[in-house]
């Protein structure tokens, strides 16, 4: 921080105090996290939903066939056709990506699902030019719907609440599968939905398909979440089903909801503003401090606060109107600023001119860079608290954690900061040559994972195992009791 004036250094120290998570605080958060994971599985429930997904086991490696997968994320819609190969971990994938229009995110339910169905139809027409759509009715679809859902069956899901900036009336509290199927029918697409999954569950299964050491799947991207396999004996809220004690069920934690009571997470004034001004105040507290959707907004609010409210000479006399537009920047802005290797941060300065519309001197650039680093590091360390909590709960001493999402894959230093926090929280000695628990790049959970879960579901149906698969929903894959092969 050479050549940084005292007043700016004071602000840097203020930010460091706000955003730095020391080891004792990380351990306190992890302990609270573990107790909330357990509470979410109880009959009373808790802040973290801990939703059973009815994905009931890892892939064996002999799954085969061709499946469709559709991934409805926070920014894009992706349609995939996945052919599972004969060797474990092998697959071919064809895919197309479609930008989710902003008006769809806040429009009507019919508008949303018609858009999804249109994209599926366009994909099938483009990739099966020599076939009529009716000839594709044997294709089964894994629908990746990465929003909190209560699932009583693998092909059924009631939306609990919108996240990631979506706010569509008439969907919360409703089963999203019939809505999508009706749209497919309206568009003349004869495809059956085999499974409704969360991208985190898909990440768990896809990673386990290629790497049997995988025990947890995580998403660190626009949103953040985790999934892991739990035994029925540790899920009191499913006691009424009289499942075998060792019956495995993948749990979609929906851990973005952690600490909704604001007991342990050290929120800054900027975190509080984001929560108050969000479509769902008081919800998704953890996600609003970790997920890529919010990191740029935390950064923006801090910079505006510096200019307008702090006793400091910062961007004096400059037009900061670009900085005053909410959600104008995402985590890629912090990533770009952190990526500049130059001592004077010249490249970052040019980027700031282009993206932030500001002309920062060297000292100001160093403050801005440090702020980005602090926000990104806090996100990585908080993410490690969640991973450590699951490992502690399950007694995992050695495993792989499959992680996907733009933060993990593209943000410089995120994996390393996350790994360092895990070492500190779990008290591994410095003499350990290789971390016993490693967070590694995941396979494509929303594509390959969705296809695998569709394949696993069909395999269970063919064996006559209907536990966790609906038998009464319209267009269900399973014939009514008394028909077909049971």
Automatic annotation (TrEMBL):
Which Gene Ontology terms cover its molecular function?
ATP binding; D-glucose binding; fructokinase activity; glucokinase activity; mannokinase activity
Q: Looking at the record's lineage, which domain of life comes first?
A: Eukaryota
Q: In which pathway does it act?
A: Carbohydrate degradation; glycolysis; D-glyceraldehyde 3-phosphate and glycerone phosphate from D-glucose: step 1/4; Carbohydrate metabolism; hexose metabolism
Any single biological process term in GO: glucose metabolic process
Cellular component aspect of the GO annotation: cytosol; mitochondrion
Q: Which keywords fit this entry according to its UniProt record? A: ATP-binding, Glycolysis, Kinase, Nucleotide-binding, Transferase
Q: Which residues form a coiled coil?
A: none
The Hexokinase C-terminal domain is annotated at: 215-456
Say yes or no: keyword Protease present.
no
What PANTHER family has UniProt attached to this entry?
A: HEXOKINASE, HEXOKINASE TYPE 1-RELATED
Which protein are we looking at? Answer: Phosphotransferase
Species, as recorded = Ascobolus immersus RN42
